[in-house]
Amino acid sequence: MISLHPAATLSLWAGVAVFIQTLPPVAMGLAALLVFAAALVIDRVRTLKLVRRIRILLAVILLMFAFATPGTAVLPHWVALSPTWDGVSLGATHAGRLLAMVSMVSILLAKMPIPQLVLALHVLSAVLAPLGVSADRVAVRLSLVLAELDAPRLAWKTWLDTVEAPAEPRVLTLDARALRQRDHVVITSVVLLAALVWWL
After folding, report:
1. Lowest CB count within 10 Å: 66, 91, 136, 145, which one?
2. b/e code 117-149 from CB counts within 10 Å (16+ = b)
3. Is 151 in a helix, a strand, or coil?
4. Where do the DSSP E strands lie in 33-128?
5. pLDDT per residue over 73-94, tens digit each?
6. Which tens digit of pLDDT belongs to each residue from 121-172?
7. Taking a C-beta distance cutoff of 8 angstroms, is the pair 122, 174 a contact?
8. Which residues are listed as membrane-spanning (predicted)?
């Protein structure tokens, strides 16, 4: 089995995630269902937890597009109060894109330990250093976000107490690994394919 640097693995993941988003509605819907099913098999608990956290957003997307998009009314006798078929289709497409992305995140977190994920983003963001992007800050912020993502949800009063309490100092240690030739090939291929898709 070929072993890739975490940065190359993250690049492949991003490439697949972007590719799914660019698919036509029907193909994207099928891909979203397949990715969601794969995420359930790989890590059912985490996947359901992430989907539960976005359930309101999914409902809002479906309702907003269903009732705000012009088109053929689902209930022809109640046109003023009816959603449209075009809106339902558009809402399902956008909800499917969101579900696919959340499922991809679940798979990524299940297959890549957080230290490797932070390292991968640290390496990839280092390319943006000439633009003023600090790879160290990106890594620290990502580690904080991931810590909150897996943390249990707190009541708002408890959360306020936690925020107001003095923070304990934390040390973030990354196990630096050099990119090999195959890692450079993978990252470059993903970037070139993304550029090609964007150009087309």
Report:
1. 145
2. bbbbbbbbbeeeeeeeeebeebbeebbeeeeee
3. coil
4. none
5. 888 888 777 889 999 999 999 9
6. 878 887 777 777 677 777 777 776 766 665 555 554 554 555 554 455 555 5
7. yes
8. 12-42, 54-79, 91-110, 117-135
